[in-house]
Amino acid sequence: MSLFRTLLAATALAAAFATTAYADYPERTITMVVPFSAGGPTDTVARLVAESMSKDLGQQIVVENVGGAGGTLGAGRVASADADGYTVLLHHIGMATSATLYRKLAYDTLNAFDYVGLVTEVPMTIVARKDFEPADLKGLIDYVKANKDTVTVANAGIGAASHLCGMLFMSAIETPLVTVPYKGTGPAMTDLLGGQVDIMCDQTTNTTKQIQGGTIKAYAVTSPERLAIFPDLPTAAEAGLKDFQVGIWHGIYVPKGTPAEATDKLSAALKKALKDENVVSRFAELGTAPSPEADATPAALKAKLESEIARWKPVIEAAGQYAD
């Protein structure tokens, strides 16, 4: 019994020490890993949120871009980091789809992370080079079906939001098209602007300025309702593509085993950041909005990830497009 009591006392002491150690968390800079290149849509979301969260936490959150392999390199970096609350991951829908796209991951998606909360769900836009012939979405669908061997679809690489949306678009119209992958959103948009590729499906955070400037042609948004920023742009459903809805949701994660005290403080800071007037207004300019407070929680993000893995698994397997 004495050994049992000693072990029990040691466990209680360790727990008390851990709680005390995190009473003043954070005490130094936090690194937010973004698994995509700087300047991209996910990076934009991360930097806005990180700046606001830093104010509440009293310590700076530094964004570190760890791109490559469809976001899995950055996610892997966080999965293997110390579970101390000082390394966090901001990832998009690719966190869910990579579980199927990559048949050999260095981490177990559902068991390698703890959760902080959802950040935002960015609508997608179906766009084309500005001189592309079709005038509306119905015309676009008819045109690409008739010219499927020559129409080119740009994306920012396997696992990127533009790749996932493009894959879902081809599935919805039951027509495979010529895909052109790039190493990032920037190069893909550059070639769309230059007319080297025909169409792309990407986040409003990346297409809004080009649509407003008339440098690309927009056909539809993938949200259930029209966006205030584009009141004249129909939804995909309105334009004839029924049940085509996809949003690129973003969430914040920490390594598995991170103390609850740290996770709770990060979640509380996230909730405040999503009410920050600067964050709200900048998100609106990018065609999106902060997640509601009820979604900026560990439980909501966990449920979202689980449901999205289940949603995308059959789509990816039916397409037979894997990253390894």
Low-confidence stretches: none
Structural class: alpha/beta
Whole-number mean pLDDT: 92
Secondary-structure element series: HEHEHEHEHEHEHEHEEHHH
Q: Into which percent range does the helicity of residues fall? A: 40-55%
Which word captures the global form?
Answer: elongated
The first-to-last residue Cα distance is: 54 Å
Overall strand count: 9
Number of helices: 11
Radius of gyration: 21 Å
Describe the oligomeric state of these chains in a short phrase. single chain
**% residues in beta strands:** 15-25%
Main sheet makeup = 9 strands, mixed
Describe what this molecule looks like in 3D:
The protein is an alpha/beta fold. 43% of the residues lie in helices and 19% in strands. The model has no long low-confidence stretch (mean pLDDT 92). 47% of the residues are buried. Strands 1, 2, 3, 4, 5, 6, 7, 8 and 9 form a nine-stranded mixed beta sheet that branches. It has helices spanning 2-21, 41-57, 72-79, 94-101, 137-146, 161-172, 185-193, 204-213, 260-273, 277-285, 298-319; strands at 30-34, 61-65, 87-91, 113-129, 152-155, 178-181, 199-203, 216-221, 247-255. Helix 2 packs across helix 9 (260-273), helix 2 (41-57) packs antiparallel against helix 10 and helix 4 (94-101) packs across helix 11.
